[in-house]
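Incident review: delayed structure delivery

Summary: a single-chain prediction request sat in the queue longer than the usual turnaround. Root cause was a stuck worker, restarted by the on-call engineer. No data loss occurred. The affected request and its eventual output are reproduced below so the record is complete for anyone auditing the incident later.

Affected input:
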Amino acid sequence: MADNDKNEPQAPQPPDAAKPAPGAPQPATEPPKAAEAPKTAAEAKPQAAPPKADAGKKVEGRVIAVSGPVVDVKFKNMLELPTVFQVVKVRTFVGREIMLQVAEHMPGCVARCVSLHDTVNIQRGSVATTTGEMVQIPIGDMMFGRIINAMGEPIDNKGPVVSDHYENIRAPKVAYDIATQQIGGTMEIMETGIKMIDLLFPLVKGSKIGVLGGAGCGKTVVILELMNNVVKKHSGACVFTGIGERIREGNDLFYELDEQNLLPKVMMAFGQMDQPPGSRMEVIMAGITLAESIQRQNKDVLIFMDNVFRFIQAGAEVSTLLGRVPSETGYQPTLASEVCEFQERIRSSKEGGSITAFQAVYVPADDFTDPAVVAIYSYLDGVMALSREILQKGLYPAIDPLMSSCSNLDPRIVGYRHYQIAQEVLKLYTKLKELRKIVAVIGVEELSASDRDFYTRGLLMQNYMTQPFFVGERYTGKKGAFVLPEECLRDCEDIISGKYDDWDPQDVYMIGTIDERKKQLGRK
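Output delivered after worker restart:
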């Protein structure tokens, strides 16, 4: 401000400049004027970005209000206000450091912040110090086998994470040259070993697959089985992001990965349901930042998110606490932009690195028309809908193929034979659904011969698509099965052609391949 005050009288000084040099020629007075212009511009340049100048030094403000996880911090003037998403730190009266993230600016030089820690014991009038930085997490190979929270702090009792490189979680620093996949081009299909998924929801490298379902339908089990099979089969890097789910599940996952020697291949970021909404909302950005750091090394990375709905739920909590008027459906008015912000970061680059995403999405009250669920639909290449009705019949995984869809199920991607078999399987499911209602009234004996064949094959196919999971071995007592896509296609062809019409549907329940079952039953 002192430089600006000094320069202001010099700007209207041409008349004064002419006064001390009456005998001097006019051209002699103009060069200093021309020389002054760049000097003034050079002096004005650092003044044009006061926030950056403030970023070098720490500015102190005062806490004036605490409302749950929302904390208002007042600063002396507008130039001292930290920018949105910058970190402000405050200490409780017992000395615990709290990290706040600026959410919006309020009148009166007040920064309204969302806490990433519990706000218990923060006093009104406490000193809040700006850092000039956004939330940063450590990046590097040392992150494999470690668990961090949304702030990059290790929570696995393995000591501090030593890294010389930290990265902002909010936005990538380098613009990506996004790879556009052409159908029929080089699209690599990844085997999952799960019959239903490999047949009807083929996984293409760089795609996004969503597992949708209500409470207790098995979303986490499917995600964990995918993680177990894909990481083992493809031996690639993996990131697991736990968003607002149970601490027990994260604890079990850690020890299961350790037992199977998969921990050195996995980075983990957790913001579980005991965390404040700010942490649950930001942890998804931390997970994507970890995945991007691997992708920039031109490596393929798998990212598993459980559960994306909890991210939206945390955003709704934050929005309400910030005083924003909710939308007509009750969610935050920024729902679409928040979902877009993280989904658009899950992409492949032309340099060779790809991010393949598996997203578990909780469906509140089994309502697939919920605005939060619909907001995620348009970003997914495949949607696997879990049905409570199928679950109650004891069919696992409880995926309803008639409610689900996948854009990767295309003859130009999977091949004509695979596509035709998948369509025939879907026809069997459709016919079985129709015949169930009729059989409930008149019985199987009253069906025509062709309908009876459809009904029998439909039941066989429905039971064949069940499968014991590796992650469920300790609960079911059955050994997990990994079925290759070619074996699944062959068995489905045989069921459709009527080769196993004389089999009882229970004979193919919770098995791997039919050849293995034949050996168990002693059949040829």
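Verification: The longest helix spans residues 416-442.
Action items: add queue-age alerting; document worker restart procedure.
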